[in-house]
Specification:
The structure holds two protein chains of two kinds. Chain A is α+β, with helices and mostly antiparallel strands. Chain A has three helices and three strands, in the order H-E-E-E-H-H. Chain A has a three-stranded antiparallel beta sheet, with helices on one face. Chain A is globular, with a radius of gyration of 14 Å. Helix content of chain B is 43%, strand content 19%. Chain B is built from seven helices and six strands; from the N terminus they run βαββαββααβααα. In chain B, 31% of the residues are buried. Classes of the chains: A alpha+beta, B alpha+beta. The interface between A and B is medium-sized, with 31 and 29 residues. Strand 3 of chain A pairs antiparallel with strand 2 of chain B.
Protein backbone atom coordinates (compact mmCIF):
# COMPACT_ATOMS: atom_id res chain seq x y z
CA UNK A 1 0.00 0.00 0.00
CA UNK A 2 1.26 3.41 -0.93
CA UNK A 3 0.38 5.40 2.14
CA UNK A 4 2.86 6.91 4.56
CA UNK A 5 3.44 4.92 7.78
CA UNK A 6 2.43 6.35 11.13
CA UNK A 7 5.56 7.28 13.10
CA UNK A 8 4.38 5.38 16.18
CA UNK A 9 4.79 1.66 15.74
CA UNK A 10 1.79 0.60 17.84
CA UNK A 11 -0.48 2.97 15.96
CA UNK A 12 0.82 1.82 12.59
CA UNK A 13 0.04 -1.77 13.61
CA UNK A 14 -3.50 -0.75 14.63
CA UNK A 15 -3.98 1.05 11.29
CA UNK A 16 -2.84 -2.06 9.44
CA UNK A 17 -5.36 -4.05 11.46
CA UNK A 18 -8.09 -1.60 10.42
CA UNK A 19 -7.04 -1.90 6.77
CA UNK A 20 -7.12 -5.69 6.97
CA UNK A 21 -10.73 -5.29 8.05
CA UNK A 22 -11.57 -3.15 5.06
CA UNK A 23 -11.14 0.31 6.59
CA UNK A 24 -9.54 3.05 4.51
CA UNK A 25 -6.78 5.25 5.88
CA UNK A 26 -6.36 8.80 4.54
CA UNK A 27 -3.27 10.72 5.55
CA UNK A 28 -3.48 14.48 6.13
CA UNK A 29 -3.73 17.09 8.86
CA UNK A 30 -1.32 18.50 11.40
CA UNK A 31 -2.25 17.38 14.93
CA UNK A 32 -4.50 14.97 13.17
CA UNK A 33 -2.29 12.56 11.30
CA UNK A 34 -5.12 11.23 9.21
CA UNK A 35 -8.56 9.67 9.14
CA UNK A 36 -10.02 6.20 9.23
CA UNK A 37 -13.10 5.37 7.17
CA UNK A 38 -15.39 2.45 7.91
CA UNK A 39 -15.99 0.34 4.79
CA UNK A 40 -19.74 0.24 5.43
CA UNK A 41 -20.28 3.91 6.31
CA UNK A 42 -23.91 3.14 6.53
CA UNK A 43 -26.74 5.45 7.55
CA UNK A 44 -28.35 2.67 9.55
CA UNK A 45 -25.21 1.97 11.54
CA UNK A 46 -25.95 2.35 15.23
CA UNK A 47 -22.54 3.55 16.32
CA UNK A 48 -22.39 6.01 13.42
CA UNK A 49 -20.09 8.63 14.84
CA UNK A 50 -16.93 6.54 14.72
CA UNK A 51 -17.47 5.48 11.07
CA UNK A 52 -15.01 8.26 10.38
CA UNK A 53 -12.40 8.68 13.10
CA UNK A 54 -9.53 11.06 13.42
CA UNK A 55 -6.09 9.63 14.24
CA UNK A 56 -3.53 11.83 16.07
CA UNK A 57 0.08 12.13 15.00
CA UNK A 58 1.11 12.74 18.61
CA UNK A 59 -1.49 11.29 20.94
CA UNK A 60 -0.91 11.57 24.66
CA UNK A 61 -0.28 7.83 24.86
CA UNK A 62 0.44 5.87 21.67
CA UNK A 63 -0.44 2.49 23.18
CA UNK A 64 -3.85 3.74 24.29
CA UNK A 65 -4.50 5.38 20.94
CA UNK A 66 -3.73 2.10 19.19
CA UNK A 67 -6.17 0.36 21.54
CA UNK A 68 -8.88 2.93 20.73
CA UNK A 69 -8.38 2.34 17.00
CA UNK A 70 -8.59 -1.45 17.28
CA UNK A 71 -11.72 -1.13 19.36
CA UNK A 72 -13.68 0.93 16.85
CA UNK A 73 -12.87 -1.70 14.23
CA UNK A 74 -14.03 -4.48 16.55
CA UNK A 75 -17.15 -2.57 17.64
CA UNK A 76 -18.46 -1.83 14.17
CA UNK A 77 -22.02 -3.14 14.18
CA UNK A 78 -21.99 -4.07 10.51
CA UNK A 79 -18.80 -6.01 10.96
CA UNK A 80 -20.32 -7.81 13.94
CA UNK A 81 -23.51 -8.75 12.10
CA UNK A 82 -21.48 -11.11 9.93
CA UNK A 83 -20.51 -13.39 12.82
CA UNK A 84 -23.20 -12.58 15.34
CA UNK A 85 -24.97 -15.78 16.18
CA UNK A 86 -26.58 -14.61 19.42
CA UNK A 87 -30.35 -14.55 19.47
CA UNK A 88 -32.41 -11.37 19.72
CA UNK A 89 -32.36 -9.68 23.09
CA UNK A 90 -35.34 -10.54 25.24
CA UNK B 1 -3.80 8.06 39.23
CA UNK B 2 -6.04 5.64 37.35
CA UNK B 3 -6.97 5.39 33.70
CA UNK B 4 -10.63 5.91 32.88
CA UNK B 5 -12.06 4.75 29.59
CA UNK B 6 -15.28 6.48 28.51
CA UNK B 7 -17.01 8.07 25.55
CA UNK B 8 -18.78 11.42 25.38
CA UNK B 9 -21.24 12.15 22.61
CA UNK B 10 -22.15 15.74 21.80
CA UNK B 11 -24.67 17.50 19.63
CA UNK B 12 -23.30 20.42 17.63
CA UNK B 13 -25.45 23.52 17.57
CA UNK B 14 -25.91 23.43 13.83
CA UNK B 15 -27.09 20.06 12.55
CA UNK B 16 -25.18 20.61 9.29
CA UNK B 17 -21.86 21.35 11.03
CA UNK B 18 -19.02 19.08 9.96
CA UNK B 19 -17.41 17.98 13.24
CA UNK B 20 -14.06 17.68 11.46
CA UNK B 21 -13.49 21.43 11.72
CA UNK B 22 -13.00 21.14 15.51
CA UNK B 23 -10.49 18.28 15.51
CA UNK B 24 -7.24 20.29 15.41
CA UNK B 25 -8.45 22.66 18.13
CA UNK B 26 -9.53 19.76 20.33
CA UNK B 27 -5.97 18.46 20.29
CA UNK B 28 -4.69 21.84 21.42
CA UNK B 29 -7.51 21.96 23.97
CA UNK B 30 -6.30 18.86 25.81
CA UNK B 31 -8.17 16.07 24.01
CA UNK B 32 -5.00 14.34 22.79
CA UNK B 33 -6.03 11.33 24.91
CA UNK B 34 -9.23 10.84 22.88
CA UNK B 35 -10.09 9.15 19.62
CA UNK B 36 -12.53 11.49 17.91
CA UNK B 37 -15.42 10.22 15.83
CA UNK B 38 -16.55 12.60 13.08
CA UNK B 39 -18.76 10.27 11.04
CA UNK B 40 -22.02 12.23 11.30
CA UNK B 41 -22.80 15.84 10.60
CA UNK B 42 -24.08 17.67 13.65
CA UNK B 43 -22.45 15.29 16.14
CA UNK B 44 -19.02 14.66 17.61
CA UNK B 45 -17.99 11.70 19.77
CA UNK B 46 -14.82 11.36 21.82
CA UNK B 47 -13.52 8.12 23.26
CA UNK B 48 -11.18 9.14 26.09
CA UNK B 49 -8.65 7.03 27.94
CA UNK B 50 -7.89 9.65 30.56
CA UNK B 51 -5.59 9.52 33.55
CA UNK B 52 -7.12 11.22 36.58
CA UNK B 53 -7.45 10.93 40.33
CA UNK B 54 -11.15 10.03 40.07
CA UNK B 55 -13.72 9.16 37.43
CA UNK B 56 -15.53 12.39 38.18
CA UNK B 57 -12.38 14.39 37.57
CA UNK B 58 -11.77 12.50 34.31
CA UNK B 59 -15.29 13.06 32.95
CA UNK B 60 -15.74 16.63 34.16
CA UNK B 61 -12.35 17.75 32.82
CA UNK B 62 -13.08 16.06 29.48
CA UNK B 63 -16.46 17.80 29.17
CA UNK B 64 -14.78 21.10 30.08
CA UNK B 65 -12.08 20.55 27.42
CA UNK B 66 -14.71 20.03 24.74
CA UNK B 67 -16.93 22.91 25.85
CA UNK B 68 -13.97 25.29 25.79
CA UNK B 69 -13.36 24.49 22.11
CA UNK B 70 -17.04 24.12 21.12
CA UNK B 71 -19.01 26.27 23.60
CA UNK B 72 -22.37 25.47 22.02
CA UNK B 73 -21.93 21.71 22.00
CA UNK B 74 -24.40 19.91 24.25
CA UNK B 75 -23.66 16.58 25.85
CA UNK B 76 -26.00 13.83 24.68
CA UNK B 77 -24.68 10.89 26.63
CA UNK B 78 -21.69 9.59 28.57
CA UNK B 79 -20.98 5.90 28.02
CA UNK B 80 -20.72 3.20 29.25
CA UNK B 81 -23.92 3.56 31.27
CA UNK B 82 -27.10 2.23 29.62
CA UNK B 83 -26.52 -1.40 28.64
CA UNK B 84 -28.29 -4.47 27.39
CA UNK B 85 -27.23 -7.97 28.36
CA UNK B 86 -25.10 -8.35 25.23
CA UNK B 87 -23.14 -5.25 26.21
CA UNK B 88 -22.62 -6.49 29.76
CA UNK B 89 -21.41 -9.85 28.47
CA UNK B 90 -18.97 -8.12 26.16
CA UNK B 91 -17.67 -5.89 28.94
CA UNK B 92 -17.18 -8.79 31.34
CA UNK B 93 -15.94 -11.26 28.75
CA UNK B 94 -18.59 -13.91 29.39
CA UNK B 95 -21.60 -15.12 27.44
CA UNK B 96 -24.90 -13.31 27.28
CA UNK B 97 -26.71 -16.47 28.46
CA UNK B 98 -24.45 -16.54 31.48
CA UNK B 99 -25.34 -12.98 32.53
CA UNK B 100 -29.01 -13.49 31.78
CA UNK B 101 -29.12 -16.56 33.97
CA UNK B 102 -27.40 -14.76 36.83
CA UNK B 103 -29.92 -11.94 36.72
CA UNK B 104 -33.01 -14.08 36.20
CA UNK B 105 -32.22 -16.70 38.84
CA UNK B 106 -31.45 -14.04 41.43
CA UNK B 107 -34.63 -12.04 40.93
CA UNK B 108 -35.87 -10.03 42.77
CA UNK B 109 -32.49 -9.28 44.37
CA UNK B 110 -30.72 -8.64 41.08
CA UNK B 111 -30.68 -5.08 39.69
CA UNK B 112 -33.91 -3.90 38.09
CA UNK B 113 -33.77 -2.77 34.50
CA UNK B 114 -34.46 0.91 33.86
CA UNK B 115 -36.49 -0.24 30.89
CA UNK B 116 -38.11 -3.65 30.68
CA UNK B 117 -38.71 -4.58 27.09
CA UNK B 118 -37.06 -5.93 23.96
CA UNK B 119 -34.26 -5.59 24.82
CA UNK B 120 -34.25 -4.62 28.48
CA UNK B 121 -31.82 -1.93 29.53
CA UNK B 122 -29.91 -1.56 32.80
CA UNK B 123 -27.50 0.89 34.30
CA UNK B 124 -24.10 -0.78 33.99
CA UNK B 125 -22.99 0.55 37.39
CA UNK B 126 -25.89 -1.18 39.15
CA UNK B 127 -25.10 -4.50 37.53
CA UNK B 128 -21.37 -4.26 38.25
CA UNK B 129 -21.84 -3.23 41.88
CA UNK B 130 -24.31 -6.06 42.41
CA UNK B 131 -21.99 -8.60 40.79
CA UNK B 132 -19.14 -7.46 43.00
CA UNK B 133 -21.05 -7.22 46.24
CA UNK B 134 -23.58 -10.03 46.01
CA UNK B 135 -21.82 -12.40 43.66
CA UNK B 136 -18.20 -11.67 44.63
CA UNK B 137 -17.13 -11.10 41.04
CA UNK B 138 -13.83 -9.32 40.73
CA UNK B 139 -14.47 -6.18 38.71
CA UNK B 140 -12.07 -3.39 37.87
CA UNK B 141 -12.56 -0.45 40.26
CA UNK B 142 -12.00 2.11 37.51
CA UNK B 143 -14.78 0.53 35.42
CA UNK B 144 -17.29 0.63 38.29
CA UNK B 145 -16.31 4.18 39.09
CA UNK B 146 -16.68 5.41 35.52
CA UNK B 147 -20.02 3.61 35.05
CA UNK B 148 -21.30 5.26 38.24
CA UNK B 149 -20.09 8.71 37.17
CA UNK B 150 -21.66 8.32 33.73
CA UNK B 151 -24.94 7.27 35.39
CA UNK B 152 -24.82 10.47 37.49
CA UNK B 153 -24.09 12.63 34.45
CA UNK B 154 -26.80 11.02 32.32
CA UNK B 155 -29.34 11.14 35.15
CA UNK B 156 -28.62 14.84 35.69
CA UNK B 157 -29.12 15.32 31.98
CA UNK B 158 -32.55 13.61 32.17
CA UNK B 159 -33.52 15.67 35.20
CA UNK B 160 -33.20 18.82 33.09
CA UNK B 161 -36.18 17.56 31.10
CA UNK B 162 -38.42 17.74 34.14
CA UNK B 163 -40.74 20.71 34.01
CA UNK B 164 -39.21 23.23 36.49
CA UNK B 165 -42.57 23.89 38.16
CA UNK B 166 -42.97 20.21 38.98
CA UNK B 167 -39.44 19.47 40.12
CA UNK B 168 -40.09 19.89 43.85
CA UNK B 169 -43.25 17.79 43.80
CA UNK B 170 -41.75 15.10 41.67
CA UNK B 171 -38.77 14.80 43.99
CA UNK B 172 -41.18 14.12 46.83
CA UNK B 173 -43.15 11.58 44.79
CA UNK B 174 -40.14 9.46 43.97
CA UNK B 175 -38.47 9.72 47.38
Amino acid sequence: MGRRSHPKQEIEAALKYAEQNGWRVDVGGSHAWGKLYCPYNDKECRCGNFCISSVWSTPKNAGNHAKQIRRIVDNCTRYNVADDSSEEEE
Amino acid sequence: MKEYDFTLKFNLQNSQDNPDIYVEKLHEGGCDDALIGVGRKGYISLNFIREASSAYEAVSSAIANVKRVIPNATLIEATPDFVGLTDVAKILGCTRQNIRKLIVTNEPRSPLPVYEGTPSIWHLAEILIWLREAKTYSIDDALIEIAKTNMDVNSAKRWQKVEPNFQENIKALIA
